[in-house]
Write a structure and sequence with these properties.
With 375 residues, this protein is α+β, with helices and mostly antiparallel strands. The protein has helices at 2-19, 26-68, 72-83, 87-96, 246-253, 323-332; strands at 108-112, 115-120, 128-134, 139-146, 180-187, 194-200, 206-207, 262-269, 272-283, 286-296, 308-310, 321-322, 339-345, 357-362, 368-369. Strands 8, 9, 10, 11, 12, 13, 14 and 15 form an eight-stranded antiparallel β-sheet that branches. A seven-stranded antiparallel β-sheet has the order 4-3-2-1-5-6-7, covered by helices on one side.
């Protein structure tokens, strides 16, 4: 009903914009003159369109708010249904929700009736894993942690270890044990056997073997009553706020940019670095690409192991500068007190032409800090 009222208000407002213009509708003007006099007519002729637009925007805002506001009752019901699902049902439900890792085979997972946590390889770092969590309503991205059982993993540069050819979720598709209060599982990368802890509603925790004692606690929110102190915690990795620590940006790039290689564009913000290098960049079975690009997350993990071939953007420097030149140029640029991003590129329409300069934006003033003489 409220949505209908908001839509009617919007329709009325749109009609009012035209209705109140000058003398288009003489009946309306006459009615206003009778009840409000000539001053009223003048007022509506001068301010009617503005009032109509204001009412229309207000009605539209009310409609959008009502349409998009969270339905807390529906979310509570969804979480309640999720809590009654079996492990296999919970996995199927979570993978149907919008998320970026539905096709990634998990390295490990933890299940309890209210939450499903799982860990995947993400990006070009086989020594780390990213945490994802599902509460039956949405899938959230968590932190990065040191990979499980690193001493038993052959980090051969492949996306998945040999032990992850089968999706770990699929191995529990038929799981059914009403006595299990929570479950943590991974796969031994050496033997390909399941390493598992089952937390029972009655009785002690069940361990698959002695290796389960070395398995870090995988439950992100530990239910009350689970004695997890006997098992090692996850080892979290520390993210970097790149604009606050630009020296870390250059230190990271020194490991990936070859000596003498030139950079055509570089951008970094709180959780992201994007760098474009001048090619040629090799492409399998194709001519070399003129440029290559890599993206890094807040943990310094690249999205892929090698430079992705790309074409130049509108502001990409065709010749570029070396990393040492970029670093020296950055040191000379005025530093904003609250940096939100930094961007090096070339813009032929600006004073620096094709040489390339830095733009540094302040988070509070939203102003770009430019070197003297730049405009």
């Amino acid at each position: 009903m409220i949505k209908v009222i908001a839509a009617l208000l919007l329709a009325f407002a749109v009609g009012a914009v035209g209705w109140l213009f000058k003398d288009v509708h003489k009946t309306w003007v006459a009615w206003v003159r009778v009840h409000a006099g000539n001053r009223g007519v003048k007022f509506f002729q001068n301010w009617g369109p503005l009032l109509g637009v204001t009412v229309g925007l207000g009605a539209l805002g009310a409609y959008l708010y009502i349409e998009n506001r969270p339905d807390h009752e529906a979310m509570a019901q969804a979480r309640s249904r999720f809590a009654s699902m079996s492990l296999a049902q919970a996995v199927a439900h979570c993978l149907e929700l919008p998320n970026e890792v539905r096709y990634h085979a998990p390295l490990a997972f933890a299940w309890q009736p209210q939450t499903l946590d799982w860990y995947v390889l993400e990006g070009a770092d086989n020594a780390a894993m990213r945490h994802y969590s599902c509460d039956g309503v949405s899938v959230t991205t968590g932190k990065r942690y040191a990979r499980l059982m690193l001493k038993r993993v052959a980090l051969d540069g492949t996306k998945l270890s040999a032990g992850m050819e089968q999706n770990l979720f699929e191995r529990y598709a038929g799981f059914s044990d009403a006595n299990v209060q929570a479950l943590e599982a991974t796969e031994d990368p050496q033997t390909r056997r399941l390493v598992e802890r089952r937390w029972l509603a009655s009785g002690p925790v069940q361990l698959s073997d002695a290796l389960a004692n070395e398995l870090p606690v995988l439950l992100d929110q530990v239910p009350a009553g689970l004695a997890v102190a006997a098992y090692p915690p996850r080892t979290p990795q520390v993210p970097t706020d790149w604009p606050e620590q630009p020296e870390a940006v250059f230190a990271l790039l020194e490991k990936r940019v070859q000596p003498g290689q030139r950079i055509g564009q570089l951008y970094f913000e709180q959780n992201k670095i994007q760098v474009t290098v001048v090619g040629p960049v090799e492409v399998a079975a194709q001519p070399p690409a003129p440029f290559g690009v890599l993206n890094f997350d807040a943990y310094g993990v690249a999205d892929q192991p090698t430079w992705a071939p790309t074409l130049p953007g509108g502001n990409t420097c065709q010749q570029g500068r070396t990393l040492s030149e970029l670093k020296a140029l950055f040191a000379q640029s005025p530093r904003p007190p609250n940096p939100v991003y930094a961007w090096f590129d070339c813009d032929p329409t600006k004073a620096h032409g094709n040489l390339g300069e830095w733009y540094l934006r302040d988070a509070r003033t939203r102003k770009e800090q430019l070197p003297p003489g730049r405009h």
